[in-house]
Amino acid sequence: MKATAAPPNFTMATFMTVWKVFVRSIATRLRVAGLSLLGLGAVALGLAIHLSHSANRPNAAWSLVDSFGLSLLIPVVALVFASAALGDVAEDGTLVYLWLRPLPRWQLALGAFGASVTVVVPVAVLPLVVGAAISGGGWRIAGGAAAGGLLATVAYSAVFCGLGLRVRRALAWGLAYLLIWEQAVARVSHGAARASIFINTRSLAAHVAQHPPPTNAVAWTTGLIFPLVVTVVALALTTRSLDRGEIT
Amino acid sequence: MTSPGSSPTIAVRQLSKWFGSVVALSDLSFDIGPGVTALLGPNGAGKSTLFRVLCGLANPSQGTVRIFDENPRANPDLTSRIGIAPQQERLFERQTIIEFVRLAATLHHIPDPDRAALLAIETVELDPADPRPLAAYSKGMRQRVKLAQALVNDPDLLVLDEPLEGLDPRQRLRTIELFRRLGDEGKTVVVSSHVLEEVERFGSRILVITQGRLVAEGPFSAIRDLMDDRPHRLRVGTDQPLALAAGLLTTGLVTGARIKDGWIEVETSDSPAFRRSVAVVARDCEARLTEVRALDDDLESVFAYLVGRR
Questions:
Q1: Which residues of A touch B76 (CB under 8 A)?
Q2: By CA distance, what is B100's nearest residue in A?
């Protein structure tokens, strides 16, 4: 029975193990199937724009990226998967099987975050990029979709991972945050826009796509840096919650 | 509960835990050393909360907990010396048993996680090659899966929350033997239960907890005596309650009697002697005895008594 344990430290093997547990936990058939349909919506819209033979394809393609991809598709898909990553295991009590191990807590936070990004990219970002690419709006639009989409995925995943751990009914709270802050307040208030993941990632996407700056746009450098700062702060807070909070 | 001079595995001092206005644990102080220690208490007594605080899953509201002289909340590395089987049934349902136990071994940084997982699964007499997901496992099998993952790192301290629940009688026996063997090897095994007879078979020291308070502690035999010596209430059925009650009061075995709905309710501190003498008294009173029944032989009554005497 004796199997001496090595001193605990960070190893890629343990990180990958944690990551796999979270991927398997969040990527249920129902979630992946349901949200893939939403993702396929982006492809369908891109195809519709392509078939429209409109002279205004670049604007239509940008609307696909802005009004559908960055406003709805990526935030909602990230909310569902990321809030489930730590939220599901905390809710059903299985988090103890990860928490009661000699691992730095940040590794759990990073594993959950990584799992969310891993799932959101193929389910939401990839279809958005494909939709933008086939729309006929030009490759720069697709590049903007990729840059903005990836950055939004990273930032939202970090925020919603923490939300899932801290609150019950994280989906409802997350939707409220998206609707009220990201899609209402940030659109009308220039000050609030600076603190919005949506506005920042959209500004970056517009810059890459060489599209005219949208309403309340921030500088592309801000658009790049702010979501990354949000990501780091959110992961730090999630680690702190795992460290100091009560584990159910 | 530790030998003099040695440091206890678990040292709890003035521990309280509350959730809002609900007090789950109240001013607990005790030490636990190597060997098997049973935590006995009715459902809702606070056993699981205590286990969660011991393992660092929850913060004490007041007081301190030390495991191997360290704060379990502050040091995740301490978990390499602890194995826990929580009460909740959920596991990673889509995993197989070998995946689940190997996961624990990998996260414990065990050099050969496959071998460690196999050994742990064999120890609890399950099949490591079982291809079914854990979702298909029965309650008893889940209990053994939880035990296997708790054993996989060969911990010095095992904290097992109601580990016998759902096991069949044979598995119960084997599992109790396993606990005793681990205790004899010098490991500290803390097992919670709400079944007195189960705890008796551990041959262990026990802590009795109820309503969040520690109401008794010591070797099982001492607790058993305490429980047997408590006043017992019995109901006696007869066609002449007045005469029989008067007769019983003269025996000196009865500390109180009252007649209620035609029955006699008596209180005695020596239940076996009372049962022997009641028939004699009934015969002398020419009363017909229809029933003699204990009213408080259930464990809840025992716990209530222990709470009352604190």
A1: 8, 101-105
A2: A97
